[in-house]
Design brief:
It is a single chain. With 191 residues, the chain is mostly beta strands. The protein has one helix and 16 strands. Strands 3-4-7-8 form a four-stranded antiparallel β-sheet. A hairpin with a 4-residue loop joins strand 15 and strand 16.
Protein backbone atom coordinates (compact mmCIF):
# COMPACT_ATOMS: atom_id res chain seq x y z
CA UNK A 1 0.00 0.00 0.00
CA UNK A 2 0.93 3.66 -0.47
CA UNK A 3 -0.65 6.19 1.86
CA UNK A 4 -0.90 9.91 1.07
CA UNK A 5 -0.08 11.59 4.37
CA UNK A 6 -1.81 14.84 3.34
CA UNK A 7 -5.14 13.38 2.29
CA UNK A 8 -5.12 10.00 4.04
CA UNK A 9 -5.91 8.26 0.73
CA UNK A 10 -4.46 4.80 0.36
CA UNK A 11 -3.44 3.09 -2.92
CA UNK A 12 -3.06 -0.64 -3.39
CA UNK A 13 0.14 -1.82 -5.15
CA UNK A 14 1.05 -5.13 -6.70
CA UNK A 15 -2.30 -6.86 -6.81
CA UNK A 16 -1.52 -8.89 -3.68
CA UNK A 17 -1.63 -8.18 0.01
CA UNK A 18 1.66 -9.79 1.00
CA UNK A 19 3.67 -10.28 -2.19
CA UNK A 20 4.97 -6.74 -2.77
CA UNK A 21 8.29 -5.45 -1.40
CA UNK A 22 11.18 -2.97 -1.65
CA UNK A 23 9.29 0.21 -2.61
CA UNK A 24 11.51 3.05 -3.88
CA UNK A 25 10.08 6.51 -4.59
CA UNK A 26 11.12 9.19 -7.07
CA UNK A 27 12.22 12.51 -5.53
CA UNK A 28 8.82 14.16 -6.07
CA UNK A 29 6.89 11.10 -4.86
CA UNK A 30 5.03 10.65 -8.15
CA UNK A 31 6.56 7.28 -9.06
CA UNK A 32 7.19 4.18 -6.99
CA UNK A 33 9.21 1.17 -8.14
CA UNK A 34 8.62 -2.14 -6.35
CA UNK A 35 8.97 -5.90 -6.57
CA UNK A 36 5.92 -8.16 -6.75
CA UNK A 37 5.23 -11.80 -7.59
CA UNK A 38 1.92 -10.74 -9.12
CA UNK A 39 1.37 -9.11 -12.49
CA UNK A 40 -0.85 -6.02 -12.12
CA UNK A 41 -3.31 -4.77 -13.11
CA UNK A 42 -4.69 -8.28 -13.54
CA UNK A 43 -3.53 -9.66 -10.16
CA UNK A 44 -2.55 -12.93 -11.82
CA UNK A 45 0.17 -15.16 -10.43
CA UNK A 46 3.24 -14.76 -12.67
CA UNK A 47 3.90 -18.50 -12.72
CA UNK A 48 7.14 -18.26 -10.76
CA UNK A 49 7.93 -17.27 -7.22
CA UNK A 50 10.73 -14.74 -7.96
CA UNK A 51 9.57 -11.17 -8.07
CA UNK A 52 8.83 -9.01 -11.10
CA UNK A 53 9.83 -5.33 -11.05
CA UNK A 54 7.26 -2.58 -11.65
CA UNK A 55 7.02 1.22 -11.73
CA UNK A 56 3.74 2.83 -10.73
CA UNK A 57 2.69 6.38 -11.57
CA UNK A 58 0.71 7.49 -8.54
CA UNK A 59 -0.83 10.43 -10.44
CA UNK A 60 -2.18 8.53 -13.46
CA UNK A 61 -2.48 5.18 -11.63
CA UNK A 62 -0.59 3.43 -14.46
CA UNK A 63 1.65 0.46 -13.70
CA UNK A 64 4.53 -0.51 -16.00
CA UNK A 65 6.39 -3.82 -16.00
CA UNK A 66 10.12 -2.99 -15.84
CA UNK A 67 11.58 -6.51 -15.56
CA UNK A 68 9.80 -9.84 -15.81
CA UNK A 69 11.20 -13.04 -14.32
CA UNK A 70 9.20 -15.02 -16.89
CA UNK A 71 10.77 -13.21 -19.87
CA UNK A 72 14.36 -13.07 -18.62
CA UNK A 73 14.30 -16.33 -16.61
CA UNK A 74 15.87 -14.41 -13.78
CA UNK A 75 15.02 -12.39 -10.72
CA UNK A 76 15.40 -8.66 -10.23
CA UNK A 77 16.33 -7.48 -6.77
CA UNK A 78 17.79 -4.50 -4.92
CA UNK A 79 16.26 -1.62 -6.86
CA UNK A 80 16.54 2.17 -7.10
CA UNK A 81 14.56 4.77 -9.02
CA UNK A 82 15.97 7.99 -10.47
CA UNK A 83 14.87 11.33 -8.98
CA UNK A 84 12.64 12.02 -12.02
CA UNK A 85 11.24 8.47 -11.97
CA UNK A 86 12.19 7.72 -15.58
CA UNK A 87 14.99 5.23 -14.87
CA UNK A 88 14.93 2.17 -12.64
CA UNK A 89 18.12 0.36 -11.63
CA UNK A 90 18.11 -3.23 -10.42
CA UNK A 91 20.37 -6.19 -9.72
CA UNK A 92 20.01 -9.34 -11.82
CA UNK A 93 22.17 -12.43 -11.81
CA UNK A 94 21.01 -14.66 -14.63
CA UNK A 95 20.37 -14.29 -18.31
CA UNK A 96 20.03 -10.63 -19.19
CA UNK A 97 22.16 -9.65 -22.19
CA UNK A 98 25.85 -9.20 -21.34
CA UNK A 99 25.38 -10.97 -18.03
CA UNK A 100 27.73 -13.64 -16.74
CA UNK A 101 25.91 -15.29 -13.84
CA UNK A 102 27.19 -12.78 -11.24
CA UNK A 103 24.77 -10.30 -9.72
CA UNK A 104 25.14 -7.38 -12.14
CA UNK A 105 23.53 -3.96 -12.16
CA UNK A 106 21.15 -2.97 -14.97
CA UNK A 107 19.04 0.11 -15.66
CA UNK A 108 15.77 0.40 -17.55
CA UNK A 109 15.11 3.75 -19.21
CA UNK A 110 11.34 4.09 -19.21
CA UNK A 111 11.31 6.75 -21.95
CA UNK A 112 13.38 4.74 -24.46
CA UNK A 113 12.46 1.25 -23.27
CA UNK A 114 16.12 0.16 -23.22
CA UNK A 115 17.84 -1.94 -20.57
CA UNK A 116 21.54 -1.12 -20.10
CA UNK A 117 24.29 -2.96 -18.26
CA UNK A 118 25.59 -0.54 -15.60
CA UNK A 119 28.24 -2.68 -13.89
CA UNK A 120 30.66 -2.44 -16.81
CA UNK A 121 33.63 -0.40 -17.93
CA UNK A 122 32.09 -0.19 -21.41
CA UNK A 123 31.65 3.18 -23.03
CA UNK A 124 28.43 2.39 -24.88
CA UNK A 125 25.04 2.56 -23.14
CA UNK A 126 24.23 -1.02 -24.20
CA UNK A 127 26.48 -3.10 -26.37
CA UNK A 128 27.64 -6.69 -26.68
CA UNK A 129 31.14 -5.21 -26.41
CA UNK A 130 30.48 -4.27 -22.78
CA UNK A 131 31.73 -6.88 -20.34
CA UNK A 132 29.84 -7.48 -17.13
CA UNK A 133 31.60 -7.20 -13.80
CA UNK A 134 33.66 -10.15 -12.62
CA UNK A 135 32.11 -9.96 -9.14
CA UNK A 136 28.81 -9.13 -7.51
CA UNK A 137 27.42 -5.60 -8.00
CA UNK A 138 24.69 -4.44 -5.61
CA UNK A 139 23.09 -1.51 -3.77
CA UNK A 140 22.28 0.96 -6.59
CA UNK A 141 21.69 4.61 -5.65
CA UNK A 142 21.08 7.56 -8.00
CA UNK A 143 22.69 10.93 -7.36
CA UNK A 144 20.19 13.74 -6.61
CA UNK A 145 20.59 15.13 -10.16
CA UNK A 146 20.20 11.67 -11.75
CA UNK A 147 23.52 11.86 -13.64
CA UNK A 148 25.38 9.27 -11.56
CA UNK A 149 24.44 5.79 -10.46
CA UNK A 150 26.48 4.61 -7.47
CA UNK A 151 26.84 0.95 -6.53
CA UNK A 152 28.96 -1.46 -4.52
CA UNK A 153 30.89 -4.22 -6.27
CA UNK A 154 33.58 -6.84 -5.77
CA UNK A 155 34.28 -6.87 -9.54
CA UNK A 156 37.86 -6.26 -10.65
CA UNK A 157 37.17 -5.01 -14.17
CA UNK A 158 34.93 -1.96 -13.81
CA UNK A 159 37.16 1.13 -13.68
CA UNK A 160 40.43 2.19 -15.27
CA UNK A 161 41.36 4.47 -12.36
CA UNK A 162 42.18 1.60 -10.01
CA UNK A 163 44.46 -1.45 -10.05
CA UNK A 164 42.84 -4.40 -8.33
CA UNK A 165 44.85 -6.85 -6.29
CA UNK A 166 42.21 -8.72 -4.28
CA UNK A 167 38.46 -9.03 -4.48
CA UNK A 168 37.00 -6.52 -2.07
CA UNK A 169 33.87 -4.41 -1.88
CA UNK A 170 34.38 -1.05 -3.59
CA UNK A 171 32.11 1.88 -4.31
CA UNK A 172 31.72 2.76 -8.00
CA UNK A 173 29.94 5.55 -9.87
CA UNK A 174 28.56 5.13 -13.39
CA UNK A 175 28.30 8.39 -15.34
CA UNK A 176 24.98 8.08 -17.19
CA UNK A 177 25.86 10.94 -19.57
CA UNK A 178 29.37 9.87 -20.61
CA UNK A 179 28.99 6.10 -20.06
CA UNK A 180 32.10 5.70 -17.94
CA UNK A 181 32.61 3.97 -14.60
CA UNK A 182 34.82 5.37 -11.84
CA UNK A 183 36.01 3.77 -8.62
CA UNK A 184 35.04 6.09 -5.77
CA UNK A 185 36.40 4.30 -2.68
CA UNK A 186 37.40 0.96 -1.25
CA UNK A 187 37.57 -0.77 2.05
CA UNK A 188 40.98 -2.31 2.58
CA UNK A 189 41.77 -4.92 5.17
CA UNK A 190 44.41 -3.77 7.71
CA UNK A 191 47.87 -5.10 6.92
Amino acid sequence: YVRDLRTGAQAFLGGATNHTSQPAFSADGRYVAYLSVRLPPYALWSGQSPANLFRRDLVTDETMLIHSNAVWDSTASTLAISPDGNRVAFVDRNSLPSGNGNPNLYMRDVLTGTISLISTQGLLPFSSQNHAGTGASTEPRFSPDGRWLFFASTASNLATNYIYSIAQNNLFARDLLNYSTLKVSSIRAPS
